[in-house]
Amino acid sequence: MKSLLAGACALVLASGAAYARSRDFDVPAGDLKVALDAYARQSGLQLIYRVEDIRGIRSQGVRGALASEEALERILAGTGFSVVRDASGAAAIVRTSGQPRPENGARQEPAPTGQSAATEPQEAPAADAVSRSAPSAEVGDLDTIVVTGTRIRGEGGAAPAYIFSQEDFIASGASSVQQVLRTLPQNFTGGSSETASAVVSTRNGNENNVAFGAGVNLRGLGTESTLVLLNGRRLAPGGFGNLTDMSIVPLGALKRIEVVPDGASAIYGSDAVGGVVNLILRDDFEGAETRLRYGTVTDGSLRQYGASQLWGTAWDTGAVLFNLDYSRNEPLFASERPYATGLQQGTTHLSPGDERRSLFINGQQDLTADMTLSAVFYDTSRDFESMMYEAVAVRQSRYTGTTDQRGGTLALDWRAGDDWTWTLAHTRSGTDVERRNFFGAGPSGPAFETWVFSSHDVAATELEAEGRVFALPGGEARLAFGAERRAEELSVHRITGDARLRHERKVGAGYAELFLPLVGEANANAFAKRLNLTLATRYEDYDDVGAADTYKIGLLWSPVDSVNLRATYGTSFRAPYLYQYDASLSGGLVIDLPDPASATGTTRTAIVLQMPDSDLGPENATIWTTGFDIDPDLFGLRVSATYFDIDYKDRIRAARFTGAVFTDPSLMPLLSRPPAPEQMALLDEVAQFFNLTPGDLSTVEAFFDGRTRNQASTRMRGIDVNIGKDFATRHGAFSAALNLSRLLAHDIREVAALPPVDILDTIYNPLDLRARASLVWSKGAWSASAFVNYADDYVDNQLPETPSGVSSWTTVDLGLGYAFSGRIPWLRGLSLQLNALNAFDRDPPRITDLLSSYGSPGYDTENASPFGRIVSLEVRKSW
Prior knowledge:
By secondary structure, the protein is mainly β. It folds into 2 domains: about 120 residues, Phage tail protein beta-alpha-beta fold (3-Layer(bab) Sandwich), CATH 3.55.50.30; about 525 residues, Maltoporin, Chain A. Helix content is about 10%, strand content about 50%. Helix 2 runs antiparallel to helix 4. The longest helix is centred in the first third of the chain and has 12 residues. The N terminus is likely disordered.
């Protein structure tokens, strides 16, 4: 731990070299918007501006090797505009005195009095509350900027956000969305992941990950409790509905990834308990870009291949972008990892092999000066295969299948004057998963095959509105409100026993969010330079589980210009996912169980397992955060810290069952003696029933109620810390920062009647400390990066009487990039990126899995990775 913190002081996480970075620019003179587009692509910086403000303005352009900041100043010279940079790294193009007239002589209207605070980023709470990585390369129209976590345009909530851009994807060496998010300390890597699925881990919900997908698990509350959006719209979940498979979206199609690790059900509805991940598609790229990638482990057979083609064009009233992507991953074999001692027989994969194909189309067209039609369409497929040797059954198993996801959004935006924007959108998303399991012949029987098919569809129609409502001393109050009608449907078919499940539901929702700038530039005083209050509420009505209402309050106070103090308080919820209504796997049993209190030593007990409770309802959470942000202008550093507290109740869990129900204190609350008549009646409803005693049901003396119900809870507290600094020297530009997540408590209750159990820092559970630090350098055409990843030590308590320690794990990722200049025409637009993940090839900490059904993989599947060193080369060429 000490070595990590000492190293972090010198080598801290980078968020991009930003303005200090020197590049070769070739921005021709002409229209200012065209110049800014070109500058954004060449610099990798995010710009925010109003298109109507700069329409008709000309720029002198810029050429040559310059620092990004100097290049932008030259582009804006003489235009009457200047750049203002906020604490997040984003840049706003704002008016200055001496504004020139456009070429056509039209009069430039001043910015409306009530324009969003994002017009002046130094006042923007969204920017100051955001912990960003390097900004993206695309240009955004200020009127359309909506930060994840709020529906107010140009504003942001008081909750922190983490933003990954295309520049971050490249520097990190990641080949997929899930690899990017694995680097975020606020994301628990356990649960539904490709590596855990390959070794048939059933922990943290992974038993439902039938397609070997990769979910995101913010705060470790479960993949089902993190909401994943594509351009702010819901995606159909994968597996049996407990995760959104991040592997379906290629990195090349994304402009950025926005992560808000805070409850947001008052904004987006169900599932946003641990937080929200918003995948933002690229939408304004002009030209063509080709990418080729090859990666390999330096010890083993795993290979990664990738190719993508991006093509985009724009015209005066619209734009369209196409992205084609192909990738293939070859498996890693357990025999190639000596520490996987329990998986050395036969053929076993530690990661599955897969092949992925995808098409993403994103376009928009102005129908009138005030109305725009936009459309997003995607179609992806992934074939997967994994092998497992079952040592106990002495047979070889093979799992194959395909997951297909398709969908899109059609939206109509109407700008009603300068004040309001109305949006009518319809979204459809569907996921089909087919999986086949081949079990080879063994001593216990011949070979056989099972098969399962699941299909999940989501359709939503939304009407949204946002605009100014009234003036306050600190600025213009803004209101967002809307309504949604959503239909969800899941069907599951198992060839074994011809078991079928079909469940659907309708959801109606309404929401409102009010932004109140109580103190602003006009009424700033000695106690407050800014004071913003945000109020949000949402009501959802499900036709199967009833209604749920949530709210959220956010407060941001700037006592001085360089310091923000912020807090949020609100409620979130998660409706049962549809698979939790599946009764086809329910079972009933009558058996004589050991009972020390019985005169005969046993008690005849009826048991019901895996049956959904008829009163199954939503999970509910109360979440509050408080924190601060310090601008670099104060100490020369970006400093941010957030304390969070999560009280998550009514969690849906199937009861754990063992034969010690009469002696295990954790099971006794589910035991009734004598059984109630309504409990015994449940035996008539189970899908499978077995009486393992010579007596009939009238001889039953006790009942164990193992139904799936709202009976568990989680209580979590922790602190996130982010520190960063950008600086330039004669040796180049540097950017450094540190992202650290420290959990203070993580208590769970399996049943409400039991006392809480502390699972923090125990095997297969979230660790108390995770951190990522790095340093990024650039000079001219060269760039380099180094990242340090740290996972703290913890306790292996699989045998509570004799716990043992699991050592900490530190890995280093390195990257080197080169962008060819435009001096040689055929090399123009070509760049190379070489990366080494886990560059020093550190093995994961050794453990022995005592509960594995097929043998111990030798590492903690929830907190570590078996890959070792992965070296990759990516070639990018813009045309």
